[in-house]
Amino acid sequence: MKIRVIPTIITAIISAVLLIGGWYMYRNFAAVQPLEHIVQSVPGVEKAKPVIDRDSVTMELTLNNEANIRSIYDQIVREGASVIGSKQLRLDIQGAKDDSSLNDVWASVLFDVAQAMETRKYTEIPAAMKQIETQYKGVQAVSEMDDVNVYITLKNGADTKYVVLPRTPDKLGVWPNA
Length: 178
Fold this sequence. Notes:
Structural class: alpha+beta
CATH superfamily of the largest domain: ANL, C-terminal domain
Strand order of the largest sheet: 1-2-3
Oligomer: single chain
Shape: elongated
CATH architecture of the largest domain: 2-Layer Sandwich
């Protein structure tokens, strides 16, 4: 039996297009879009773009100044559980603009926070936030914690910096959003 080359190649190309297209449509309509709608309905979120990987879901967020990142994280986990499943949820918070004064404030207390995280003495983090408020006039510093992350919000007038630190930091790594 002789195999005809042209029909075989055409069949392989059509099969590949159908498989890849079907996978893309499933991923987009069954995972990405529902999660995007869930996150955009959360108070404080201006824009959201989910990036779904094999073992993690990264939410690229743009937040307004009144956002509470701990409640945003909780609501995403609760309402997006069917899409997220057992994957790890990460928040990548994009700032509306880069405010160097809040970056300098964060840098001044980063060592204290990193030491508290490394030694698991989380009660030292609110003390570091109080230090920020006394050292920098007009800056509000709030820290919150749950069983997964430590959430830090720095506000100076209309400028806001959000930081999410995992409670179990990766070994030999740095915080990607600090």
